[in-house]
Amino acid sequence: MMRSAAIFLLAGILLMTVPVRAETVTIATGEFPPWTTDTARHGGFINRVVSAAFARKGIDAKFSYMPWKRAEVETKVGRYDASSFWFASQALENDFVPSQPISHHQEVFFHLKSKPFPHWQTLSDLGGVKFGATLGYTYTAEFWELAKTGQLNVEVAARDLLNLKKVAVGRIDAFPMDEISGWMLLSNAKFFLPGIKELFATERRPLRTTPAYLLFPAHRPRTAYLAAKFNAGLLELKNDGTYDRFFQEMISGVY
Known about the structure:
The protein is of the alpha/beta class. It folds into two domains: 23-104 and 210-251, D-Maltodextrin-Binding Protein, domain 2 (3-Layer(aba) Sandwich), CATH 3.40.190.10; 105-209, Periplasmic binding protein-like II (D-Maltodextrin-Binding Protein, domain 2). It has helices at residues 2-17, 44-55, 68-76, 90-93, 141-148, 160-168, 179-186, 223-239, 242-251, and strands at 23-29, 59-65, 82-87, 96-98, 103-112, 130-134, 153-157, 174-178, 200-202, 208-217. The strands form two sheets. Strands 1, 2, 3, 4, 5, 8, 9 and 10 form an eight-stranded mixed sheet that branches. Strands 6-7 form a two-stranded parallel ribbon. The radius of gyration is 22 Å and the shape is globular.
């Protein structure tokens, strides 16, 4: 009897020392510093928030970095549990379930001071401007429709950095981009010579102001469960001040 009790006690001790494997969520993401990036601490502000929100609910977030269009397609077909992160778009909402808003962004037109941006009321007024755009980005439905019909002159490139460089050398006139991200890239000495930033300006009127979301693939078994967990964790981060602290650290250059 004593031997049996000892065996059960030993088994209990061994079970207590075996680590419990955390539940995992796989997330397709891309490069959009300082919001999401594989080259900075915490993966950028958004991915830090996403990771922390899931962690509050005992879920470990695993990020895979790739081109944005690939992230959209592979998440849509269920190779990933979610994609971080996307601006509002009716086209995306047809295939994905959005989280509660993670952040809010202002997309503005970057241009050279030497090429003042024309006065405009609607995008159709800007037919004389040669725009850059980044492959896989949503912008607005109107922007892409006018580009498709030739009413806007839009040249697509693979990355934001390429578009800003094209503005700098005069190959395009303007490029719509998140305001914080654009100025951050222009300030990066790895990409631009000192003083280049001072040649740029932004159009006061934005292309749009939009919330951003974590997207979950529609019709996947875990989507409702993971979305609920994330939204609950995100609310906790906002309520206890963690979200605001993360944001201020981004503004101060932590990412």
